[in-house]
Amino acid sequence: MRENIPVIRLKTDTDRLVARDGVVLCFFMRRSHPEVAPAIWRALQTYLRATPPQSLAWYGSDDGDTLPLDDKGWQHIRKRILERPGGIAWIVELEENCSEVGGYHFEYHGRKLDDPLYSHDEDATSGVAFSFPTEYLLEHGPAHFRALALELARELPFSFGYASLAFVAPHGLWYAARRELIGYLTRYLGLDLYHLTDTSRAIGTRARGAYWLTFLGQPLLGQLGGLEGLRHTLPFPDVSFQSMEGERLLISLGEWPDAIDTAKAHHPPQYRALAQLLEPFLYEERTGFFSLNKDNMRRWLRRLC
After folding, report:
1. Least packed by Cβ within 10 Å: which of 15, 50, 182, 255?
2. 10-28: per-residue pLDDT in tens?
3. Where are the domains of the chain?
4. The whole model's pTM is what?
């Protein structure tokens, strides 16, 4: 329910906001950038229509600077996504605020998967993430958000995707407040901590976990028994299924996302059931971005199992 969603603001010692509560929507595609570029551009336009004007006001330039996202900036972004002919990676990062974390953020990491550079990264994907402040979900309601997530998903040839309550912190900015963050991660098991660069380079066609909205493509959906198999293994009244074109499926684990607050006695059983079903198909994080110990990340990804 909406009253169970926590308000979180993580700041540095200098009072800079580096992470906040929000909702993240991520998709991973086992396709090279040239195959998905038009779909990524259309999805970005859908995101822009759904969010307030100027929600994205800054972009990362080729030389590492952050520049105002004016008409010239949009021309640059369009060319980067649709018209840049060569390269092995296409990175687009659009932000609401250039000085601290805002609620709205778009991030895309496209890759040329057949390039020799990725010969050792057989599980690399092209990945995209859209973030929203929690206020967007509360104002528009979960039905609106689910419809928007579906609209975005239809554009993208994903193998796995999800929408979840999250610590919105692009580029891993949360690291500057990691001591405080650990307490929140321990308490709220339903809040995602994402790092698109690392996950998209390792997830392949596997899963990242069980989420409020879990999108399954192939081959994962088939490996899980398809729609009928999932209906049988997830017989919960709050769970709904929506088939999508291209042998894909959306699983909704409830009307509202659940923060899964460990300070409260009741936890929604459907999250654990889906997590246990997905456990054999979870990917292995390679970077260990929680700390130098990769096992921390492995345990956290399996926190609901």
Report:
1. 15
2. 998 889 999 999 999 999 9
3. 2-301
4. 0.95
